[in-house]
Amino acid sequence: EVSENRPRETQTSTASTSPSPSPSRPLGAIVLLAPARDCVFEFGQIYRVCLLQNAIRSVDVHLNAHYGPYPVYVVMPSDPEEASSASSAAAAAAATTTTTGGVNVTTSSRYEPENCVRNLDCCRVDRPYSTSDREELRRGLNNTDVHFVEVPMYGGEALEPGFTPEKFEQWRRGKEGAVEGFRNVGYLSMCRLYSGRLQRMNFLSEYKYYMRMDDDSLLVDAMPFDPFREMERENLSYAFKRVLSDRWGIGKMWEITQRRMSREQLDNMAGMGFVNKVDKKGKPPMRVNVTGKTRSVVMIRRFDEREGGRNGGAGKGKGKGEEWSYGGLQPYNNFHVSRVSLWYDPRWLEWENDADRIHGFTKYHWGDANVHAMALGLLLRREEVEMWPDVPYMHNTNDFGRGEYPKPEWRGRCRFHRNSSSTLGRGTK
After folding, report:
1. Of residues 342, 345, 329, 248, the one with CA closest to residue 287
2. What does the pLDDT look like over 261-302, one tens digit per residue?
3. CA-to-CA distance for 35 and 190, rounded, in angstroms?
4. Rounded to a whole number, what is the distance in angstroms from the first to the last CA of the chain?
5. Which of 4, 185, 217, 361 has fewest C-beta within 10 Å?
6. Would you call 46 helix, strand, or coil by DSSP?
7. Do 196 and 343 contact (CB within 8 A), yes or no?
8. Residue 323: beta bridge partners?
């Protein structure tokens, strides 16, 4: 029996065979991952669920009012209680003892719900989305059906086999050859989710394409074209808006990828611009050259990249007297459109097995955008990939700048509340 506070509208599992899109279904679906229920956006002091609501509304107004309409799937954790368990175990493993005034004092990074408004710890614990939460996310939509899908996010199939919080805490410190870093379990689970696991879930198997957006993103104007019809018309398998550079653990990532690639594939990936073919004169400048339609490249330097020296460095691979170097260039995949069947390719399933075997996400802090660059090089020809720089999509302060996002009026009309005395994000009841 399902409680009223924990509805399960859609149960899902991983499909075992390649998808068969239904002719009665729309060509594609939009997918967003729900944030931790009480997570506070660090700029603007507003619940991220309020941002999710505005992201869905932007799809309703700027996409589905003109094309489709296409369904929206909001992916939520089926195991939110595991988030606090994992965090507590990691915090206990991270506890340190210092001496103050001759007295030993044990400190620990505790993730307590009552502290979440003050120090963002609500992003490291989670709670179920209630029936009223889900109804509120649907409120005010004129063109869009919203579905909710619950999947494990904090344990079980969400993480690599053999993962433990105790191991993870050691890896975060750079032990056992790991990449030192601050990314938490929930974030890395999300990266692994978008690297093939989500794409093979049953709820997407009836669609030919999917489009990803983030909860803290928006369509800010009418889409100039139907993204799914454009994919079909141009025979594309993957489209994205722009590129950026990220370097978390890329040496190990490139190591397991390059050994699976032929010289032709390496040249093809170099032609896309995601890897550089190195010669005695040195590597060429970063570029993206996926189709003749590419008009501009907007480079974003992630704050993570400042840690590039300790986060894995550039990956290099050799073959037949030549060398290809991967420096971290990737599709900025918080907006992308992809063919669903791409992620069923046996070559990719083998790659995922290799990644799980070495705990690529939790030990080396891999991001899913770097992983998508590997998928494009391993699976696709250059003409199957296209960049859409003019899509009116914007992603939090990376695009809006501080003070412009989130919009002040959102907080006033946000109806989501914590089950506490906090008034953050409180609007009209």
Report:
1. 329
2. 999 999 999 999 999 987 655 544 445 555 434 333 444 333
3. 10
4. 30
5. 4
6. strand
7. yes
8. 278, 318
Average pLDDT score over residue span 90-101: 44
CB-CB contact of 40 with 48 (8 Å): yes
Helix/strand/coil for 422: coil
Contacts of 403 (CB under 8 A, 6+ apart): none
The letter for the amino acid at 94 is A
Q: What is the pLDDT of residues 337-375, one digit of tens each?
A: 999 999 999 999 999 999 999 999 999 999 999 999 999
The pTM for the full model equals 0.84
Asked if 71 and 253 touch (Cβ cutoff 8 Å), the reply is no
> From start to end of 348-412, where are the E strands?
385-387, 393-395
Which H or E element spans position 257? helix 250-258
d(CA 299, CA 265): 25
Q: Which residues does 390 contact at the CB level (< 8 Å), separation at least 6?
A: 224, 295
How far are the Cα atoms of 16, 156, 215, 319, 385 from residue 331, in angstroms, in the given order? 27, 29, 18, 25, 10
